[in-house]
Amino acid sequence: MPQPSSLSCTERPVENRRPGLAVQYQDTSHRNLRLCLFRQAIDTSRFRVVSSAGLRHLDLDIRVHVIGASHLIQCGRWSELLSCAAESEMAPVFALGPDFSGRQPFRYLDGDLHFEFEIGLIPTEGDSGLEQLDRAQARISHYPVHLASEFATDNAGHCPPVTCLGVRPLERGLEVSSLHYYPQESTAVLSRSVTSVR
Predict the structure, then answer these.
(1) CB-based contacts of 146, cutoff 8 Å, min separation 6
(2) Contact assessment for residue 178 and residue 73, using Cβ atoms and an 8 Å cutoff
(3) pLDDT tens per residue across all 198 residues of the chain
(4) Predicted TM-score (pTM) above 0.90
(5) Is residue 2 in a domain?
(6) Rounded Cα–Cα distance for residues 148 and 43 (Å)
(7) pLDDT recorded at residue 45
(8) Cβ neighbour number for residue 160 with a 10 Å cutoff
(9) Domain span including residue 14
(10) Are 26 and 154 contacting, i.e. CB atoms less than 8 angstroms apart?
């Protein structure tokens, strides 16, 4: 699919998939994930940013970050934070979780901003679950901008904790897909958001 001509990658994605760059995994649970949407950029200094990329789209400078088993998308007009530690000095205009059992996709509309969010789980016990995990990682790796970060842990088995983040510019917005894998819980979390600017 052709991409909007306004896309330009302003910073090459920095990934940490090599063992020498592995960051120690902080044992968290997918049951603690929360989504927060802010109507401005938020300060990244309180997060441990593992990998990042930048792009320019719709005359906006957009930064995408893997922050452990979480992610942060930020630009001047909005920020999306999916994290187990979603507290912020600013109040979100929209927040979900940790219970995501409501009707999906979740929607938020505020003036010129329209946001949709979906989330689901992949149980990864057994070969079929790990195959689904591999397929999800492969799909995200085909996004025009993507990050993948693995984490060092003592008990991950053959598949370590990983966060994958894919970003696709849209004609009037941005699509973000993420995969957060928690091997200690044999669970992966898939999310997808679409943010449109009117």
Answers:
(1) 13, 140, 164, 165, 166, 167
(2) no
(3) 334 334 444 444 444 443 333 444 455 788 889 999 999 888 888 888 888 999 999 888 999 999 877 899 998 889 999 988 655 668 899 999 888 888 899 999 998 999 999 999 999 988 888 899 999 999 999 999 999 888 766 654 567 788 999 999 999 999 999 999 988 888 999 999 999 988
(4) no
(5) no
(6) 22
(7) 83
(8) 17
(9) 8-197
(10) no
Cβ(162)–Cβ(185) below 8 Å: no
Comparing C-alpha atoms, which of 113, 132, 114 is closest to residue 186? 132
Q: How many domains does the chain have?
A: 1
- H helices of 17-147, in order, are 126-141
78, 36 Cβ separation under 8 angstroms:
no
- Print the SS3 string covering 164-184: EEEEEEECCEEEEEEEEEEHH
Q: Is 183 helix (H, G, I), strand (E, B) or coil?
A: helix
Read off φ and ψ for residue 73, nearest 5 degrees.
-115, 130
Pairwise CA distance, residues 57 & 7, whole Å? 5
**175 falls within a domain:** yes
Looking at residue 155, the DSSP 8-state letter turns out to be: S
Would you state the structure tokens that stand for residue 133, as one six-digit string? Answer: 């995990």
In a domain, 144, yes or no: yes
Let me know if residue 1 belongs to a domain.
Answer: no
CA–CA dist 92, 94 (Å, integer): 5
